[in-house]
Write a structure and sequence with these properties.
The complex is a heterodimer of chains A (about 120) and B (about 110). Chain A is mainly β and about 120 residues long. Helix content of chain A is about 0%, strand content about 50%. In chain A, the strands form three sheets. In chain A, strands 2, 5, 6, 10, 11 and 12 form a six-stranded mixed β-sheet that branches. Chain A has a four-stranded antiparallel β-sheet with strand order 3-9-8-7, with no helix packed on it. Classes of the chains: A mainly beta (about 120), B mainly beta (about 110).
């Protein structure tokens, strides 16, 4: 079974600073990768996804992520964060060879942006 | 606007009672999912369904049941057998086309059992 590790449970950062949220997954076979964002007491919203092609993926709200197959990582980055980016971020993986569309999620990283 | 509706947003029940959480989607998606979220635990898959009248257990199905009688609806029943039912429950759906793996989420239902 696949697993996803988000190395930091909380990341505090000042407004306008860059940020990187780390994600590693267990499988070295082909995978689909996703980052979702959750604002308090709400559902999840897709930020970006990697299915194939370019390893640098751009998403909404200025976020991007880089797929690194050799390191089984899919870290999320933003060059300059805003207060409104304060939320919980989830990395997720899916196995395209399973025939099922289920996702395995990491435990989440809370991004705390302060002025 | 297309989307996923979960009702109610907050739900309170006494221990020993079964409770059913509603999930409706008008996205014409074939696949639907139920997740449980606990603080610091991420999302864990309870049940999923890829077609009407068929569903599969996820990682933590014990104490839960589902039905899928209509394409747009996937209700989840939390039974009295679920030892720790207090949690935030999220419903999601996805199409069976090229966006098969992209799941869209509802706003969630926070269940408190005392």
């Amino acid at each position: 079974a696949q697993s996803v590790t988000q190395l930091d449970s909380q990341v505090p950062v000042f407004e306008e600073a860059p940020v990187e949220l780390r994600c590693n997954y267990s499988s070295s076979v082909s995978v689909y990768l996703f980052w979702y964002v959750q604002y308090p007491n709400q559902g999840l919203q897709l930020l970006l996804k990697y299915l194939s092609g370019s390893t640098l993926v751009k998403g909404i709200n200025g976020f991007e992520a880089e797929f690194n197959k050799s390191q089984t990582s899919f870290h999320l980055r933003k060059p300059s964060v805003h207060i409104s980016d304060t939320a919980e971020y989830f990395c997720a993986v899916s196995d395209p060879n399973s025939g099922y569309s289920t996702l395995t999620f990491g435990k989440g990283t809370m991004l705390l942006v302060s002025p | 606007d297309g989307g996923i509706t979960q009702s109610p947003k907050y739900l309170f029940r006494k221990e020993g009672q079964n409770v059913t959480l509603s999930c409706e989607q008008n996205l014409n998606h074939d696949a639907m999912y139920w997740y449980r979220q606990d603080p610091g635990q991420g999302l864990r898959l309870i049940y999923y369904s890829q077609i009407v009248n068929d569903f599969q257990k996820g990682d933590i199905a014990e104490g839960y049941s589902v039905s899928r009688e209509k394409k747009e609806s996937f209700p989840l029943t939390v039974t009295s057998a679920q030892k720790n039912p207090t949690a935030f429950y999220l419903c999601a759906s996805s199409s069976m086309g090229e966006d098969f793996y992209e799941q869209y989420f509802g706003p969630g239902t926070r269940l408190t059992v005392t």
